[in-house]
Amino acid sequence: MKFYGRERELRLMEHLYAGAPSFLVVTGRRRVGKTELIKEFCRGKPALYFYVDANKSIGTLMDEFGRLMAETLDLPGYIRTDTPEAFLEFLFSYNRPLIVVFDEFQRFLKVNPSFISQMQRFWDLMGRDSHLFIIVSGSSVGMIREIFLAGNAPLFRRADNILTLRPFGPRECLNILGDLGVADPEERLNLYLLFGGTIYYYIFLEKYGCTDLESALDRLVLNDLAPLRREMNDVVVEEFGREHATYYEILAAVADGKRTQKEIADVVRLPPTSLPPYLRDLIDLLGIIEYRVPVTERKNRSKMGRYVFADNFFRFYSRYIYRNMSLYESGRFALLRDRILREWRGFSGWAFEEMLQTLLTQSLAEDYEEIGPWWNRRGDEIDLLALSPERSLAIEIKNRDVSLSEARGILADLEKKMPLVKGLVRPTTTGIAARTVGSKETLETEGFYVMDLNDLGIGR
Fold this sequence. Notes:
single chain; alpha/beta; Rossmann fold
């Protein structure tokens, strides 16, 4: 698959390369495209790429890195770089422009923490006189923060920039799916709702010729040779080892709609007070889930927080594969596929709502300071509430075609919720966003805010 997007990121990298010596950190959750971005940037440039494998000793890594460096730079045999000290001293003494990439750099915290301190020392002593452009990447956002952003971090303020890659947006993904031969707009939408903005999965769609939801399920997930059949297992076991079962249960609970710490704890049969370390890992290390509070609340003070998925495919996998592992392992894929397809519209409603929240937030960002969902303890919810000092806007989102009469009913119910929002700024406009909205112009004339997929640039 060809490389897509990331123009701003590539421009930043080119700028830092031209002004070397430079030090760049690239972070973001797994599968978001960090390695592909770095490879695209390095194309045609002198570069060394080192992958930090947490299962190898520092001695083994130095042997591997030294062999790669000798082959790439055509070094004479008498140069030895088999210790971290010798390895770093050679790199910082190299007298030609060179890009040096350390992928999954945070794993040095496990393999050999002193390597990070040694890099700090060499950068401080020799870095500004070197010809290096050092790029370190890592998917464990919390660990990257521990190395580069905390006040006592070993490489605090050494990086010229910390580049956090986000998943691709809905419009970008739908355009990519069109390029990959998915002609039916409805199927493009289905595939986005399955995989979200994680570009890694789109490579498999192209490779296996998937052009609709059913073929993606059959070829990528629901057969004995499917490339994504062990996706959650591969990621969670690699990161958490023997404790992976507890993380599985937490993810399955969130996929089943358990969103508070107590609700999750009841399902996984753990005291609520023991959950925070697991939840932090899933947020900071893997980026699979997020912690959210109502738009009217402050995150660090609110007791109304909820845990939700930040990854469409992991939510799908937790709900349908992990929870039905007996069916899955026994090869009863047709039964599982029929269940998924039968429940798809209801299940994908969450991802559809997330998609529209993203698009609406982008559309409203210039006019409103705070935008996000709202809820209270009674269970009342507003899908999107946009706030500014002068006015506010409340929107209900529906994953279906809505007629004029249905829209009026939805808007009337939304009006009844407005008094429940404390401190709401008046005047308040109410609105609806859906796949299509019947007689949209009539509602707009009456002062309502109305959006459908065509208005948001992802027409059917």
